[in-house]
Automatic annotation (TrEMBL):
<feature type="transmembrane region" description="Helical">
    <location>
        <begin position="30"/>
        <end position="49"/>
    </location>
</feature>
<keyword id="KW-1133">Transmembrane helix</keyword>
<keyword id="KW-0812">Transmembrane</keyword>
<protein>
    <submittedName>
        <fullName>Uncharacterized protein</fullName>
    </submittedName>
</protein>
<keyword id="KW-0472">Membrane</keyword>
<feature type="region of interest" description="Disordered">
    <location>
        <begin position="1"/>
        <end position="26"/>
    </location>
</feature>
Amino acid sequence: MDDPLFVPDNWAMETHSETDPTGGESGFSTGRAILLILAASMCAALVFAKAEQATPARKATVARVKPTVLPKVPVMDVVKLTIDGPDMSKDGEKSAKVTAEFAFSATDPVSFVILKSSAVVTDVDLGSNRLRFTSRPQGYVLNVLRAGDYKVSLTYLLPVTEKAGKWSIELGILPNLKNEVVLRLPDKELDVLSNEAVYLTSKEKGDKGTEVSAVFGPVQKVGFTWQPRVRKTKLEKVVFFCEVNTFALFKPGVVELTNLVRF
């Protein structure tokens, strides 16, 4: 009876009923559930706090990444094109021979399309072992392996079209600071036009036919059209012409005269 660890059963029952009117097991379960809810709430709060702290850091990391800058296609210092057009007869070939000369400077290695796939290349002079010339589906590609100054010469064929007596040719031209295009035709007395040209002159070179010189602005495609020159009768002076030829045939007792008049 004197043992302090001994508690009477009826006293324990009374004490238990005062602290937990609903019973011992129910009170213990309710307390444990409350503790679990509090712990879950604290864990969720910690997770959201860490997420909010991590998001600005991730954004800052993305902001520090610089975009990749692709090398630019070099602008040609000089572009010179010489076009030898075909004979305008029915048996003439429907193609023109083009000799192109390019002079440019590259600050970095670069690759670009120098000719469209419609051209048929017959000769290539790169002038440097730092250049590579390849054929791709999109056209002919010039690969510049190192920075430097370069001069490239190409010879190729382009199609020429003819419709209702009017001939035409189109060709691309690279971005440039200076250009010169010469069109040489074996025929004379031609009217030659180019809508893209800012300067155009046409001269007849005797037996060599017609030579046209043109300069173009910042365009990607240029073209020429030519046809036989049309007579402008309004500018001609009216002149009347008449020629009379008389032939006489003498016979015994008779003279036979024949007059031929042309006007």
